[in-house]
Amino acid sequence: MRRQPGPRALVLAAGRGERLRPLTLELPKPLLPVAGRPLVVRSLDALLLAGCREAALNLHHLGEAIRAALGESHRCGRRTLALTWSDESAALLGTGGALVPLAPFLAGASPAVVLNGDSLCRWPLDRLLARHARGDAAVTLLVACRADPRRFGGGVAVDRGRVVAFRGGDLAAATAPTRRVFAGAAVLHPSLLARLPAGASDIVSALYEPLLAEGATIAAVETFRPWHDLGTPARYLEGALDFALTGLAPRRSRVDRAARVAAGARVRSSMVEPGASVEAGARLARCLVLPDAVVGAGARLRRVIVGPGVHVAAHSDFSETLLTRGADGSIVATPLGS
Fold it and tell me: CB neighbours (10 Å) of residue 311?
């Protein structure tokens, strides 16, 4: 029997990370740590578990750092995911345009999976692929039930398991019973890529909305699993903590085996990443301490991201703040925002 091709994937990793600056001036968003592993690695793990054996990533801001970190393949247990790279250093192509140069790569897929590189979720990709395999939908999207559509442009309109509109002003959106938030995962047949124009484009306006206008089905798979868009420092903090602390007792923290928390420090509802250390007498609440950072003795931190390599002086006091290193090695304190 002839073996059928399996799914192939594109992880959209070419964003500029502008809203996360200054954190992303030296660390690209896909490499942001989440419970001891880079965000993009968690996406690649999910693809492997869903049966993908080949994936592409598009690159722009600090793209060489991403490629150097991942190499030409990714392993999870005994499984290996071969990696293909698409360079967008000259110009960003958008969510639609990114697929065009990868059409030959995705042509062998059955089907193609597209993941947003700035989304964090324990994605139920098996459910998404199973729904698409029914064959009645041109595209199948994962939508989050817990996320507030008002925070994400109004979300998408869903009626009886189908997306019926992507914009709030559409008549279908006004009459649809439910609004959900797109959760960063889509499945489609590679033949649809021929409809995308050359150059930069947005996949919603260039592909999804024309499909709806023609009467095609865009299926919606709903998930109650936590989903986070990590586009701002505040969202990164909350998303990374939610992921890291799931399953722990209230106020407990996760400290990586390669991190150090001194006796006498009190760390609550926080994540301490590999290589970081918290010195005696420090008090942390809902903080994210990134690799190789040091929180000095007696420091008081509340809802703070301590950036890679940052040394917080003893007895410092910060709240609702992103701490990064300036060009001269000094600490740059940026309000966390929303």
Answer: 17
Q: How many domains does the chain have?
A: 2
80 and 175 share one domain: yes
**In-domain check, residue 3:** no
Dihedral sign from CA coordinates of 51, 53, 58, 63: positive
Q: Is residue 302 part of a domain?
A: yes
Rounded (5°) CA angle 27-336-65: 5
249 domain residue, yes or no? yes
**How many Å apart are CA 224 and CA 144, to the nearest integer?**
6
d(CA 98, CA 85): 11
What CATH number is attached to the domain comprising 136?
A: 3.90.550.10
Strands 139-144 and 73-76: unpaired
Distance CA 203, CA 221 (A): 18
- The SS3 call for residue 21 is coil
Query: What does the pLDDT look like over 262-290, one tens digit per residue?
Result: 999 999 999 999 999 999 999 999 999 99
Side chain identity, residue 186? A
User: Residues 17, 40: contact at Cβ < 8 Å?
Assistant: no
What CA–CA distance (Å, rounded) separates 34 from 36? 6
Query: Within its chain, how far is the Cα of 96 from the centroid?
Result: 18
Question: What pTM does this model have?
Answer: 0.90
d(CA 301, CA 88): 38
> Which stretches in the chain have pLDDT values below 70?
1-5, 168-175, 338
| Cross-strand partners of 190 | none
Task: Provide the residue type at 68 as one letter.
Answer: A
State the helix-helix crossing angle for 63-70 and 39-49, rounded to 10 degrees.
50
Residue ending a domain, choose from 209, 229, 249? 229
- Which residues have C-beta within 8 Å of that of residue 271, sequence separation ≥ 6? 35, 240, 241, 244, 245, 253, 254, 255, 287, 288, 289
pLDDT given at position 1: 31
Could you give the CA distance from residue 119 to residue 102 in angstroms, rounded to a whole number?
21
What is the span of the domain harbouring residue 224? Answer: 8-229
